[in-house]
Amino acid sequence: MEAAVLDTLDPLIGALRERGYAVVGPMVRDGVIRFAELDSAADLPVGRADEQAPGVYRLHERGELVFGFAASPDSVKRWTHPPRSTLFRMRDGVPEPAAVRAPKVALLGVRACDLAALAVQDRVFLGGRHPDEAYRERRAALFLIAVTCAVPGGTCFCASTGTGPRADSGFDLALTELTGPHRFLVEPGGERGAELLAALPSRPAGDADLETARGVGAAAEARMGRHLDLGGVRERLAEGRESPVWNEIASRCLTCANCTMVCPTCFCVTVEDGTSLDDGTAERTERWDSCFTLEFTELGGAPVRSSGAARYRQWLTHKFSTWFDQFGTCGCVGCGRCVTWCPAGIDIIEELERLR
Amino acid sequence: MSKLAVWKLASCDGCQLTLLDCEDELLSVAARVEIAYFLEASSARGKGPYDLSLVEGSITTPDDLERIGHIRRVSRHLVTIGACATAGGVQALRNLADVREFASVVYARPDYIKTLDRSTPVSAHVPVDFELRGCPIDKRQLLEVIGAFLAGRRPVVPAHSVCVECKARGNPCVLVAHGTPCLGPVTQAGCGALCPAFNRGCFGCFGPMESPNAAALNALLRAAGMDDDALQRVYRTFNVTSFGGSSDA
Q1: Where is the signal peptide (chain A) (predicted)?
Q2: 3 state SS of B12
Q3: Domain spans of chain B?
Q4: pLDDT computed for residue B239 by the predictor
């Protein structure tokens, strides 16, 4: 099926709910646009825009767009790789695999950077010799509705990493919000999306709709908050191990791990073993961990990367240099979350420049 | 069956109440251990020695000093619970002032008061097997510590920042999104990021995380509107001594 035009998103949300999906999309919660379960299109943050800068996030009322804001602190990671999951239980010395929680979720309003991050995650979790079957199940249970970024944030740089602002693939449906009159261009990204779109009240997209949609992406590309020159970054980091810049960054770095928690590609976990007081069962749980915690690199009782400088260097070097060696791609998708949600406002783009 | 004892020194009772607050899990605890000595719950004084002693409160009197020696002698494992027992508590504010002056203002006959110049953590006086932080402690962590000691394993009590729990829980960062002063980045997790979940900044009641960079945080807190006096107050509320020089940074 070809592209179509929708006047409202309610039929889409309704059709997904009828098919058993919980529809999760952007909502205003405590002054932040978060991803939560939607009842109807009325829950969407119409006319709300975010201001994002290093260490600063504020919501304002601006315009009439439904998707007039940039990346939320929630990426797709929260659904594909949840903060905590049970791996197995042990009863009387016999392991019992834990059931994978993979609810059917339709994510509405996923950005191109998030889809790029999902492709990175696929390589990490499924590409190696030991694929993560729980990840595979959770990912298969997702229905992905992308949206073209119209208003990039002040910390966005997906145009530099080649991962946005328009989604090319990896979605079931892609929306572009158009104005004058207000409507959505919908493009199916596969059979599942085409089947759903065919069931919605829509009209065929005209050349003018397609042209206007291209303009939305092009305008967003021209309004990126940040620009990163990726040329030579991989080598620069590999050669910059002893740079004095690391210590200077460490003087500002809180080693709080916020950057890694909001990063859509950071995948590191630890496992915790618990014992029940009730029935003597034991349980192994996987939870998000970070290269910024000391326990993460504990070997023989002591951390290998004890200084903040060593931990920051590990993170940035992995993301932009050794990730290529390990997975054949860059680990960064230009979403800017680590810059916005760093309480200290450490800007990776500035730091990469200073490492020159 | 293992014997459990719960002791109290200078404290408010909130941490030992956490054990009673376990409600749903309390019967499981009682099924696994003999709660031999727990005056908050029962006037029975089961005889020692005890396999696990939970000690609440700081050392503030000569009597406390004697008691903690006794507690250590009758306990196979001694676990201190809460900011008082692990860091001296709110009452360690005396460490920065003259306690005799306080007594003269508060009591009609200050000469009746036998108190030490300083409020100190239990670990300053006897060997401690594990310190569980918080003001008060977290119920989930208390059950974890009891379970770990019964199973003979290391308790899973991470020393990283509150931020890790905050992000896992899906809280908005109150510092970044609201400009609310928050000690989360320098404070040890364990509470489940309780205050930020209600749009409050962290007050640091779990004490410093494993690698606190207070100087860096203080620069941000000053930018968020805290003056030196306010900074000093927030660091000196629950963990007067353990944040060390943070308040002066």
Answers
A1: none
A2: coil
A3: 2-151, 162-242
A4: 85
Given 3-state DSSP classes, what are the helix, strand and coil percentages for chain B, each rounded to the nearest 5? Answer: 45, 15, 40
Cis, peptide link before residue A165, omega less than 30° from 0: yes
Name the helix (H) or strand (E) containing A174: strand A173-178
Q: Read off the pTM.
A: 0.96
- How far apart, in whole angstroms, are the C-alpha atoms of residue A183 and residue A125? 37
- Indicate the pLDDT class of residue B245, thresholds 50, 70 and 90: low
Measured at the CA of A270, the angle between CA B183 and CA B129, to 5 degrees, comes to 70
Structure tokens given for B236? 């000196």
- Token match 């968020």: residue? B224
Q: What is the pLDDT of residue B240?
A: 82
- Residues A179 and A65: beta-carbon distance below 8 Å: yes
Measure the CA–CA gap between A297 and A313, rounded to whole angstroms: 14
pLDDT in tens, A268-327: 999 999 998 887 799 999 999 999 999 999 998 899 999 999 999 999 999 999 999 999
Q: Note whether A254 contacts B216, CB cutoff 8 Å.
A: yes
Do residues A60 and A51 make contact, with C-beta atoms less than 8 angstroms apart?
A: yes
Chain B CB within 8 Å of residue A273 CB? yes
ipTM of this complex: 0.96
Averaged pLDDT, A324-338: 97
Topology of the domain covering B2-151 = Rossmann fold (3.40.50)
**B249 pLDDT above the threshold of 50:** no
Inter-chain contact A255–B146, Cβ cutoff 8 Å? no
- Closest in B143, B150, B173 to A258, CB measured: B173
From the list B15, B125, B109, the residue with the least C-alpha distance to B61 is B125
Cross-chain Cβ contact B172/A261 below 8 Å: no
